[in-house]
Structures are given as structure tokens and as C-alpha cells.
Amino acid sequence: MKMTKPKSVSGNKGKNACHACGLLKDPQSKGARLLYLSKQFGAFIVDEPLFKPHIDRKDGGHLAILPRRHTVDRNEFTSEEAEEFILLSMAVGGAMHKALPRRGIKLAIINYQQNGNWGVDRPGGPHLHLHLYGRARDAKKQKHGEALYFPPKGDNFYKGFKPFNENDEKMIQTEFNSIKRDKKYALLKKRNML
Q: pTM score > 0.85 for this model?
């Protein structure tokens, strides 16, 4: 199989630099609560300073996966990136399914959403990212069985949303590490730099 060099997307330099690109150059120094980090992707607990959670931990919580190079759409992935991206989403989602009920969160389903709407008009376009939104049966704001609701950034709707706490994070990380041992996730185990 012939390897292709990743395509570089313009427009992510200078004063209008992509927020995600800047944070992902050295995510650990920026305070990212990482579950996984490779040369190509980061998977993390959604918390400041990267992003504010769109779903409170009690309502199911919020994780995200981002490519480390500026990518606007999945069709820009190399075949290697595509393989890692889908396996990573499966493993992180699996970790949520196993960990959250053990933390008292009545998880019913996970919504996997590639949004990017808030960055669509920025120079260079949005930075592709995949949200993993846990949907708890007893959710208060993002209610189970209803479509997710996302008012504009900064809206009071998000006020008070809590990210996963330290104990949730440890449980999710433990389950993620266990899942990576399965041979179908060998690529993730090999590439994880944490």
C-alpha cells in the first residue's frame, strides 16, 4: 500500500491561528486531561483550558478526540489516520460505557458528533474534532431521549456544567487501558505516547 503524505490546510497561522492547533502542539503543558496522545491524535476529558463541557458529568459527560494537525474534514485523513481515528473513537466510547455506570452515571448511550459549527467561518475553517457525549437516563439538562441542545458559546445554559472529576477520569483511563490490550486495538497501544 502506498503511503500518502498528510495534506496541510492553510489558514491556521498568524493572529487568526486555530485555537485547537495552538493547544495541541503541547497539550500536557496546556493542562489537557489526556486519555491518549499519539503523533496524530489526542483524546481527552473536555475541561478548561481546552473547551468547556457541553454536557454536565451527571448528564453523561463529555470527551473529545482531535487530530493534532489542522484538518477540516475526515476526507483529508490518510488511511492510517482514518484507522487510528475510528479505533480511538471505539476504544474511548467503550471506556465510557464500562466506567461511567461504575461511577454512578446511568449511561444509556453515547452520541458521537463531529460538529465544528462554531469554527466554520474562521480562516482555515474549523479544526475537525469528535465529541463523545454521554447520555444518562436521569439527565437534567441534556435529557435522555431528546436531541442535544447547543446554544451559542457563552450562553448561561452551560453555566455550572462540571467536567468528569478526577475519580471519573481515573476509572475511564483504567477502562481505556484495559480495552487497548485487545488485539484489535494494537495500533492504539503502539502509538500511545502517554
A: yes
